[in-house]
Design goal:
Elements (H helix, E strand, L loop, with lengths): L19 H8 L6 H22 E5 L13 E6 L23 E5 L4 E2 L5 E2 L2 E8 L4 E5 L2 E4 L2 E2 L15 H4 L14 H6 L4 E2 L2 E3 L4 E5 L9 H4 L2 E2 L3 E11 L12 H18 L7 E2 L2
Antiparallel strand pairs: 1-2, 2-14, 3-6, 3-14, 4-5, 6-12, 7-8, 7-11, 8-9, 10-11, 12-13, 14-15
Length: about 280
């Protein structure tokens, strides 16, 4: 019987040498064509646009109506999906209805007029106090919801110095244009009051700012329709010390001056403790 010889494995030094042509092909650098570069950039832009349009949005706090929860100059990432109406084309996404206590970003239900008299629907952020069917009134600044006093430690407390009947005993004092309420809400207000309570109608929500005595909210302009809700803030990705009237300034000169101020004072006036701070 002839014994079959097992081939001896080659050592690295015995391996087949690589030809010069093979070495050149291995080391050859693959250069991206202009069309491929353009396609890559377009892909990134499309993905970014999709995220900003459907999933998340940047929002900056322009006023002190939500202090101390949110400060002027806080830059937020807003979740536009969770509170959106369910969509069949995104079946795996978790949706839910707005709930009491949520901080909500929404379109103001009544327009403001710009310098040229054109209506502008502002984007606001407030805390959701009442859902459809809720009965609401305030007693000495404390929210009484469906007959139960609510513990709201985030809200500015009412004192003898800041007490105002319209704000702290709402809705016992009707809104009027004399105190800043809109004309539409002043006329429609009584249709929603029953036995001293304001009753939230179907498909609408009642919003208030945490800075209760410095907040133009549902007490001044009424309920927010469901379709006006944009989303809810997730976290504060950057916060910069900003004067409360800064975002009311107009003109290129003011914009350039403010950008220069940010660049010069970025490290000293950034609120680092609020970076990546969750919004609750």
């Amino acid at each position: 019987m002839t014994k079959k010889k097992t081939p001896t494995p080659k050592t690295p030094s015995e391996a087949q040498p690589v030809s010069e042509s093979d070495s050149a092909s291995v080391n050859q650098t693959v250069e991206e064509t202009p069309w491929e570069a353009c396609a890559s950039i377009c892909t990134i832009l499309v993905i970014g646009l999709f995220i900003l349009t459907f999933l998340a949005q940047n929002f900056v706090i322009p006023s002190g109506s939500m202090e101390k929860t949110l400060l002027v100059g806080d830059h937020l990432v807003v979740d536009r999906v969770t509170l959106a109406p369910p969509a069949k084309w995104m079946p795996l996404v978790h949706y839910r209805e707005p709930q009491r206590g949520d901080i909500v970003v929404f379109l103001k239900p009544v327009p403001d007029l710009d310098a040229e008299g054109n209506p502008q629907y502002l984007i606001l952020v407030k805390r959701l106090i009442g859902v459809p069917g809720d009965r609401i009134h305030l007693r000495n600044g404390i929210v009484i919801l469906n007959g139960v006093a609510q513990s709201q430690p985030h809200a500015q407390p009412t004192t003898l110095e800041n007490h105002r009947d319209f704000l702290d005993e709402f809705p016992s004092v009707p809104p009027s244009t004399d105190i800043g309420a809109t004309e539409t809400w002043s006329q429609d207000f009584q249709n929603h009051v029953e036995n001293g309570d304001l009753v939230v109608p179907p498909g609408h929500y009642f919003m208030m700012g945490d800075n209760r005595h410095n907040s133009l909210d549902s007490r001044y302009w009424g309920f927010v329709p469901r379709e006006n809700i944009v989303g809810r803030p997730l976290f504060n990705y950057w916060s910069f010390e900003t004067p409360e009237d800064q975002y009311e300034q107009t003109g290129i000169g003011n914009t350039v001056a403010w950008m220069g101020h940010i660049a010069f004072h970025f490290f000293t006036e950034t609120r680092w403790s609020r970076t990546l701070h969750l919004v609750r």
